[in-house]
Amino acid sequence: MDLGQQILFFFSALGAFNGFIIGSYLLLFKKKNSIPAYFLGILLVSVSLKIGKSLLYYFYPALPGIYIQVGILGSSLAGPSLFYFIQSALAQPSKITAVQKVTYIFWISAIITACIVTPYDKRPNIWENYIGSIISIQFTTYILLSVWQLRSIFTKFFSKSETASTPELLLVSVLIGNIIVPAAFKLPIFSFFNGPCISGALFFSLVLYLNTFLFISRRKTGDLLSANPNAVRYANKKIAKEQAITLTEKLEKIILEEELYKNPDLKLNDLSKRINISGHQLSQLLNDNLGKSFAAYINGFRINEACKLIVNDKGIKLEAIGYEVGFNSKSTFYTAFKKHTQTTPTLYKEQLSVIPL
User: Fold this and answer.
1) How distant, in Å, are the alpha carbons of 35, 83, 97, 235 from that of 109?
2) Residues 44-56 pLDDT 10s
């Protein structure tokens, strides 16, 4: 390869390499009970193997057929992995089902058997004309099944009363990406850049980086790959009044009994775990049902405690009281105090001194 081809190969292969690394991370290091992350990991590894196979075939056509066979193995797992990722993200099951395991065992066994019985180097026409066609039909079928699973989300795009949540939009984004990349390999319209192999690889890089950016830049997507059973199911639903009352009482009891508000580093997700709901649900409870942000809600407990300490007046300085009740600076304490009481800590203390007991 000349320098131009080396640069082209580098950028084309970059997405496949990073996709393989991210997929491996999800498979090996993500929590084992995070089923969506597991299937997303298989999907990324599978598609990366497929892209890698196409690049090697384009730049190094004389390589042994084993590389082609490994890439086709990846292709055979991409469709099921996409379908099961979306299915598990919507349903959040606690474990992988027997049907899912059998599906993977079947396709892996089928491709390995084909490698042994009719290696690509000896019978390339069988792999290109028959096995390749079967996998294309399989992938198309799983794409259609995935679209069907997301049908309720698609209807929200045309509804004035409902909007798709962030996790739902990311599921659609992953689906669209898995439609565009294979299309870039197959359709002539995408072969404008040194042929479909290069265009497909570059499109994969673009889709991978775009979705990675969306996943890490939006806080609410943490639930999508978590083991929380309500991550997407309740993503766009207001919590019922009765349930909200129960959760609010439970939340207040834990906060007051354990004085959690005194922790200046208290996070929404830490608190949600204490009452066994997702961070997104707790955010819904506070914003939609109570009409408060997380910071405002916690600061309410802190200010109430600060007022008690001021009333008791044990010689503690006002600034020290702020730190005592959970604020991490004097300015945030004074700002929150005035917002909740319409006065400053100093004036509040002075007013107490003139009130007859």
Assistant:
1) 23, 20, 18, 38
2) 899 888 888 877 7
